[in-house]
C-alpha cells in the first residue's frame, strides 16, 4: 500500500513515516518545510534503511497534488500538514484558517478526482474546549474552543463529517491527539519548534541544555493536585503507532467515519513532568511560577478505551520513557546545531 503523508517531515509526521516504513508501507511525503527541516528526510532513511518519494510544496497547490496523485497510485492519505501553536493562532487567525482548513479542502477535492477515499486526519484534544467531563471520551461535547488552532481542527472535523455524509465510500479516521512529547529512541528525529517553544517539553529540554535560562510555569493556582496544569502526555512513537492501527482499521472496514482519542488515560501535572525529567536525566530544571497563560485549561486527559477496543491500540511508553527520549534527542540536536 502507498500512503501520502502530508507534513511528513514534521514532528509527528516523521515519526509516523518511520512506523509506516517499518510496517512495509510505501510512502510519499509532501512537505513545505514551514515548520520542519530537510535533514529529517535523511534521518528517516537512516533509521529505517528504507527510501520513500518526496515532493516539496504546499497542499493548497492543486496542480502539485494532481502531479503527486498522477505519478503515484496513492491508496490512502495521512494528513499532518497544519500549524499547531495555540498562542500563535490567537495572533494569526487568517494564517491558521488558511493553512489548516483551506488546504484540507484542496486535498479532499483532488483525492475525489483520483478516487482516493481513505484519509487519516490529525486532529486534537483542543476540539473539546474546556472539557465538562474528565476523563474525556469521544462522545464528550466538542466546541467552545478557546483559540483559532482548536477551532480550525473543529472546522475540519465538520468538513470531514459532511464529506462522508455526501459520499459513504469514504473511509475517514479522525485522531484527536492529547499531548505528544518525546522522540525516537535513535535521537535522530524529535521535536524542533521554530523559535521559542510554545509547548512545555521542548522548552524544558532547552532549559536543560542551557539554551534557555528558566522555565516559566504558567500558574500554580489551578484546581489540581499541586495547582499546576494536568495533561495527558503520550509518547510520539506510541502516537505514530496509533496511526498505523487507524490505517489498518480503514483497510479492514474499507469505508466509514471513525473518531478516536489518542492518549494514555493518565494525567500528569507540570511539576510531575519537571520532577520526572530531572530524575531520569539527572539534570536540574530552573523554573519560576508566573501567571496563568490565556486560553489554558486546568485539566485535560483522555479515556483511551475506544481506541483500545476498536483499534487494539494502547500506549506502551511511560512518562520516564518520554522524558529520557526527549532529552536524548535534544542533547544530540543541540551538539550538532550549536
Ligand atoms: C502543557 C502544560 C501549560 C509551556 C497544546 C495544544 C495541543 C497540542 C499540544 C498540537 C500546560 C504548561 C507550557 C510553558 C508551562 N498541540 N506550560 N510553561 O497547551 O496542553 O496543548 O499543545 O498537537 O493540541 O492544545 O500544551 O505543552 O503548551 O502546555 O507551564 O512554557 O504545560 O500551562 O499546563 P497544551 P503545552
Give a quick rundown of the structure.
The protein is α/β, with parallel strands linked by helices and 338 residues long. Helix content is 42%, strand content 18%.
Mean pLDDT: 96
* Model regions low in confidence, pLDDT < 50 over at least 5 residues: none
| Biggest sheet statistics | 7 strands, parallel
Give a list of the ligands: UDP-4-deoxy-4-formamido-beta-L-arabinopyranose
Give the overall shape. Answer: globular
The oligomeric state of the chains shown is single chain
Structural classification? alpha/beta
How much of the sequence lies in strands comes to: 15-25%
| Number of helical regions | 11
Helix content: 40-55%
Side by side, the strands of the main sheet go 3-2-1-4-5-6-11
Topology order in helix (H) and strand (E) letters = EHEHEHEHHEHEEHEEEHEEHEEHH
- Integer-rounded radius of gyration: 19 Å
Distance between the termini: 40 Å
Q: What's the total number of strands? A: 14
Amino acid at each position: 500500500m502507498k500512503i501520502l503523508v502530508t507534513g511528513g517531515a514534521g514532528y509527528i509526521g516523521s515519526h509516523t513515516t518511520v512506523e509506516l516504513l517499518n510496517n512495509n508501507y510505501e510512502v510519499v511525503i509532501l512537505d513545505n518545510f514551514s515548520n520542519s527541516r530537510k535533514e529529517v528526510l535523511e534521518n528517516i532513511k537512516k533509521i529505517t534503511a528504507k527510501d520513500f518519494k518526496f515532493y516539496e510544496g504546499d497542499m493548497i497547490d492543486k496542480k502539485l497534488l494532481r502531479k503527486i496523485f498522477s505519478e503515484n497510485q496513492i491508496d490512502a492519505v495521512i494528513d499532518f500538514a497544519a500549524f499547531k501553536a495555540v498562542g500563535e493562532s490567537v495572533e494569526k487567525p487568517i494564517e491558521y484558517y488558511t493553512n489548516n482548513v483551506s488546504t484540507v479542502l484542496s486535498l479532499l477535492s483532488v483525492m475525489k478526482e483520483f478516487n482516493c477515499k481513505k484519509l487519516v486526519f490529525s486532529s486534537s484534544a483542543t476540539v473539546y474546549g474546556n472539557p465538562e467531563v474528565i476523563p474525556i471520551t469521544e462522545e464528550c461535547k466538542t466546541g467552545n474552543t478557546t483559540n483559532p488552532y482548536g477551532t480550525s481542527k473543529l472546522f475540519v472535523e465538520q468538513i470531514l463529517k459532511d464529506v462522508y455524509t455526501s459520499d459513504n465510500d469514504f473511509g475517514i479516521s479522525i485522531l484527536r491527539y492529547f499531548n505528544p512529547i518525546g522522540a525516537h529512541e535513535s535521537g535522530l528525529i524529535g521535536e524542533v519548534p521554530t523559535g521559542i517553544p510554545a509547548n512545555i517539553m521542548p522548552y524544558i529540554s532547552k532549559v536543560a541544555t542551557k539554551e534557555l535560562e528558566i522555565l516559566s510555569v504558567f500558574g500554580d493556582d489551578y484546581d489540581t493536585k499541586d495547582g499546576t496544569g494536568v495533561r495527558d502526555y503520550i509518547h510520539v512513537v506510541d502516537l505514530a503507532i496509533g496511526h498505523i492501527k487507524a490505517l489498518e482499521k480503514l483497510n479492514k472496514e474499507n469505508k466509514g467515519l471513525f473518531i478516536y482519542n489518542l492518549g494514555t488515560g493518565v494525567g500528569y501535572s507540570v511539576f510531575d513532568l519537571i520532577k520526572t525529567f530531572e530524575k531520569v536525566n539527572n539534570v536540574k530544571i530552573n523554573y519560576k511560577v508566573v501567571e496563568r497563560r490565556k486560553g489554558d485549561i486546568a485539566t485535560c486527559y483522555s479515556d483511551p478505551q475506544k481506541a483500545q477496543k476498536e483499534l487494539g491500540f494502547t500506549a506502551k511508553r511511560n512518562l520516564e520513557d518520554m522524558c529520557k527520549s526527549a532529552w536524548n534527542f535534544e542533547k544530540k540536536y543541540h551538539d550538532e546545531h550549536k
